[in-house]
């Protein structure tokens, strides 16, 4: 019983690790670079992002625990559902370094479009295993839809500067 508690916490905390590292590594770029970008009027306030990601990462982490538990741990049945989850989580963690770190909005856009597909695939694969786990991903998919639209708008409204060009 005590060991299952540790697994529950571990799976729930895991997504936060990459999210925190992404924020920590890129936090200085937000006031210096991101604030100067042209953004649409519907762009959420900077204060909303850490709250949203805390809720979303907690839900997706706990959902991944439910899937892992229902499939008997790291069994052969878990390879595809947890593999899709791991792949989408890796793309989720890669977005901040692409966008904030490298200022490469095109690569960030490609990343988030692939992330969208993998997140949808994850939810579909989870639905047959545990409907609650799949439904815990719905807010995440909603936020990803907004983040994808925001990435597209920022990419379109802020043409990338060519190296050597003066402003």
TrEMBL record:
<keyword id="KW-0472">Membrane</keyword>
<feature type="transmembrane region" description="Helical">
    <location>
        <begin position="107"/>
        <end position="129"/>
    </location>
</feature>
<dbReference type="Pfam" id="PF03073">
    <property type="entry name" value="TspO_MBR"/>
</dbReference>
<feature type="transmembrane region" description="Helical">
    <location>
        <begin position="47"/>
        <end position="66"/>
    </location>
</feature>
<comment type="similarity">
    <text>Belongs to the TspO/BZRP family.</text>
</comment>
<keyword id="KW-0812">Transmembrane</keyword>
<feature type="transmembrane region" description="Helical">
    <location>
        <begin position="6"/>
        <end position="26"/>
    </location>
</feature>
<feature type="transmembrane region" description="Helical">
    <location>
        <begin position="135"/>
        <end position="155"/>
    </location>
</feature>
<dbReference type="InterPro" id="IPR004307">
    <property type="entry name" value="TspO_MBR"/>
</dbReference>
<dbReference type="InterPro" id="IPR038330">
    <property type="entry name" value="TspO/MBR-related_sf"/>
</dbReference>
<dbReference type="GO" id="GO:0005741">
    <property type="term" value="C:mitochondrial outer membrane"/>
</dbReference>
<feature type="transmembrane region" description="Helical">
    <location>
        <begin position="78"/>
        <end position="95"/>
    </location>
</feature>
<protein>
    <submittedName>
        <fullName>TSPO protein</fullName>
    </submittedName>
</protein>
<keyword id="KW-1133">Transmembrane helix</keyword>
């Amino acid at each position: 019983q005590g060991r299952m508690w540790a697994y529950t916490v571990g799976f729930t905390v895991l997504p936060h690790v990459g999210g925190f590292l992404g924020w920590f590594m890129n936090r200085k770029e937000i006031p210096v670079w991101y604030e100067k970008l042209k953004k649409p009027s519907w762009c959420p306030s900077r204060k909303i992002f850490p709250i949203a990601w805390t809720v979303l990462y907690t839900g997706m982490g706990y959902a991944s625990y439910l899937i892992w538990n229902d499939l008997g741990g790291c069994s052969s049945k878990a390879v595809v559902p947890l593999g899709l989850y791991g792949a989408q989580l890796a793309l989720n963690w890669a977005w901040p370094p692409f966008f904030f770190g490298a200022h490469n909005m095109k690569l960030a856009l490609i990343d988030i479009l692939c992330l969208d597909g993998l997140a949808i695939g994850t939810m579909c694969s989870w639905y047959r295993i545990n409907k609650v786990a799949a439904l815990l991903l719905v807010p995440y998919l909603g936020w990803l839809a907004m983040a994808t639209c925001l990435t597209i708008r920022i990419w379109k409204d802020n043409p990338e500067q060519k190296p050597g060009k003066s402003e």
